[in-house]
Amino acid sequence: MSEFDRIAPGVVAAAGRVQLPPREPQMGFEGPYLMSPALAEAVNVALHLDRPLLVTGEPGTGKTALAWGVAAQLGCDEVFEYRVRSTSSAQSLLYEIDHLRRLHDANRGTHETLPYQTYLRWGPLGRAIRSSRTEVVLIDEIDKAPRDFPNDLLNELDRMTFWVPELKRAFHAQARHAVIVTSNGERPLPAAFLRRCVHHHLTFPAADTLVELVRLHTGELTLAEGLIERAVERLIALRDVTGLAAPPATDALLAWVRVLAALGVRADDLAAGAPADALPALGVLLKTPADRALVAGRPLR
Questions:
Q1: What are the phi and psi torsion angles at 115 (to 5°)?
Q2: The 79-83 sheet, strands edge to edge
Q3: In a 3-state reduction of DSSP, which class is residue 124?
Q4: At residue 37, what are phi and psi to the nearest 5 degrees?
Q5: Which helix (H) or strand (E) holds 56?
Q6: Largest Cα–Cα distance in the chain?
Q7: Could you tell me which of 180, 280, 167, 296 has the C-alpha nearest to residue 244?
Q8: pTM for this one?
Q9: pLDDT of residue 171 exceeding 60
Q10: Per-residue pLDDT tens for 103-112?
Q11: Cβ contacts of residue 300 below 8 Å, gap of 6+?
């Protein structure tokens, strides 16, 4: 038994076949999640310290899906997800009260006392803090939030407690929760916020890891022999082209292999030396005209 097994409310293991709960297909979270030993260690450290885990890395490397991988291992039924926008407020992560509806009802005289509870909606972090069991909270793409958003959460994340003045009541966490925060690095985060987090950077996977990942996610498909390995080689060669604005990531690779299977593409059709713009379904991998122009006519190793 490890130290983490003794002190953490739950412990995740590095495994290649962590089956995720069913999700909407367009969200891209169906299938297994491949967790490296280093990433599993970071999750366990965050659980042990009762701190948020800040996960950084380029888009498409599995930062968001990590929350469902952790939830699957900890036996959670769902992930309390908050997708950050430029208009997000820290309070909405905890709770929101529909003051306009309350005022409208007051003007119509439909309620005598108009209790705030009638108009209150708990946010993802507020739901977790009020829960008696360990929950997984995902604060996705925090770098898109307004400047003060991270600092407005310092006390709540530190103490896992919050005050609702309308109810004149404080809520305190009854269990440890896994709080996963993702960032694409579009803007720097405040130092005070960073000090309260455990950090892990997801680098782009090596070729053998990519092959295993594709096999895990395409097991139900009939693929031509060697197609996965050749597709991974071409993807890495594309990413090696200097100057790409949006290099293709793992989510693009998974989608591309599925398209290649549907088109009946063979491994020989992806041989090295062919021009990059001759690759089938290139639009799945490269998403800007500038990137398409950059690789046009360029032979891939």
A1: -65, 140
A2: 79-83, 136-140, 178-183, 53-56, 198-201
A3: helix
A4: -60, -40
A5: strand 53-56
A6: 77
A7: 296
A8: 0.83
A9: yes
A10: 777 677 655 5
A11: 234, 237, 238, 272, 273, 274, 275, 276, 279
